Amino acid sequence: MISIIVAVSEDWGIGKDNELLWHISEDLKRFKRLTSGNAVIMGKRTWESLPKKPLANRKNIVLTDNPHETIDNAITAYSIEDSLSKCTPGEEIFIIGGGSIYRQFMPIADRLFITHVHRKAPADIYFPEIDMKIWEISEEEEFEAIGSVGIPYTYTIYKRRK
Ligand SMILES: NC(=O)c1ccc[n+]([C@@H]2O[C@H](COP(=O)([O-])OP(=O)(O)OC[C@H]3O[C@@H](n4cnc5c(N)ncnc54)[C@H](OP(=O)(O)O)[C@@H]3O)[C@@H](O)[C@H]2O)c1
Fold it and tell me: What does pTM read for this prediction?
């Protein structure tokens, strides 16, 4: 099972200047809960953006196109196929970004865990379009803004149509 997990703005932005657009603590906790114990695959820019690396209790696989590079404290992969071959059969795999990696895994992902953040924000990296002819919503849960600085968001899980 390959799952993409991402938080997107109202206009599908996901990052700016190699950082996230927000830090919604409940969403980050959910990310940790869902991904813990599993493999996470990410691009090198996302790896570089992590404040604390590797992500604890997860198999961290980092993609780079540079055949001479080895990423310290992570498993280095040099292509999409190579990253998948470094997972064990039956292992749950989460694709955790960024934009270039989401785009490449969209055609082979089984599920999308999208946090739709109900805010617009300036961004320089975007999530690819979700084609509803290919995907259907399997679960949805809405959250109101909490406190004066809270941001409302919706968790939506999409699954690939059969
Ligand atoms: N909102 C969210 O949920 C979320 C989640 C994650 C990330 N983000 C944001 O996304 C942004 C980063 O995304 P990004 O698109 O700029 O970078 P990225 O996808 O994280 O990393 C891109 C790098 O990955 C490597 N790569 C990509 N495809 C590859 C392939 N097929 N084979 C081998 N290596 C490959 C290349 O590394 P080399 O240059 O070493 O060759 C490439 O430069 C940041 O702003 C981050 O905060 C947001």
Answer: 0.97
